Amino acid sequence: MQTSLPTQGFGSDDARRLRFVVTYFPLLQGLRFLPLGLLLSAWGVWLCLPFASPRLLRPVELTVVGVGFLAVMIVAVPIGRWYRREFGDMRQRGSTLMLVVSLVALAMAAGYAYLHGHAPRPPPHEVPTAAIVNGLRGIAPWALLVLGAVCAGLWSHSGRVLTSALVEAVVCVAYGLALLLGASPFCALLGAAPFLSQAHCVAVSVLVPLGFLATLGSILDHRLLLRMFAPLAEDE
Amino acid sequence: MTGPFAELAEADRLIHEPARLSILTVLSASERVDFLFLRRLTGLSKGNLSSHLSKLEAAELVAVTKTFQGKVPATHLSITPKGRKAVERHWKRLEEFRASSSKWLKREQD
User: Fold this and answer.
1) Distant-in-sequence, close-in-space partners of B46: CB < 8 Å, separation ≥ 6
2) Residue B58: how many other CB atoms lie within 10 Å
3) What is the DSSP letter of B57?
4) Which of A31, A65, B21, B45 has the most CB atoms within 10 Å of its CB?
5) A95 to chain B: closest CA residue
6) Does A156 touch chain B (CB under 8 A)?
7) What span, in angstroms and rounded, lies between the C-alpha atoms of A148 and B51?
8) What kind and span of H or E run contains A111?
9) Taking the complete model, does pTM exceed 0.80, yes or no?
10) A18 and B48 in contact by Cβ < 8 A?
11) Separation of alpha carbons A195 and B64, rounded Å
């Protein structure tokens, strides 16, 4: 992979590299997603511990996870500022990014709703959102299909190069579809593990691989970004 | 000069220059970028990039907007509709040239 433009010519490969960086610049800022990966991994590991609640989310755990997500969002602000200072800023064409983010959020909400539907049902006063959950479960297949189509479109648009973010999205889509079809590959493997209760099996089998993928992917994306940008050239 | 090479010679010299083609390619793939982003991505020095941008701005292919973010001056760059059309046409032409030159070379070898 080149780190700067050739001085003698500018070809299709260089153009593809530039289009790729411009299309994926926000997603290539991997350090922004590192805390999220660590949080998801930690949540998954927590559910494996013997003193974790048999329910998926008690109010106390919900609060801790909520605070964790808030911290992830707060930490992303200075990290984003650092990226802007180092690499500059750009605005993508149209609202591609917003569309992708909305669809990812929708798919995540649908996935959560699906997981919640498979956990033991808590008393109504603890989770007053049963109707919303059921509604989200209904749209989960559509959200996953649309997300899959968006991934394919982005891949094609950016010159058919994969980023880890795209790989993660594709894995999520594939895994989400497998869950919707009633199969849980990791859960089948983990089911026999003594440290894992059946109630947490699906959640752990989603959170740990997703957290691990997000952590690893964020580091790889950050390294890719560093390689794609040239060091600042000085005037002679 | 005959064959596809004659076509290449006719290509827009302003756009065909490697640094300017890279600038226009970045701008055509985005809505707006700042000066630092363009500098880091193209690997050009400050003076070199400014010089190319001036030429592109004079040809109305690029729009330069200077603002202040607090007390810090910021330069934002975007491609004009004329610039977008020109660079898209140029890339299409280059692809056509590549295809026709492959055919031409094959014919010459036979």
Assistant:
1) A234, A235, B39
2) 10
3) H
4) B21
5) B31
6) no
7) 43
8) helix A96-118
9) no
10) no
11) 61
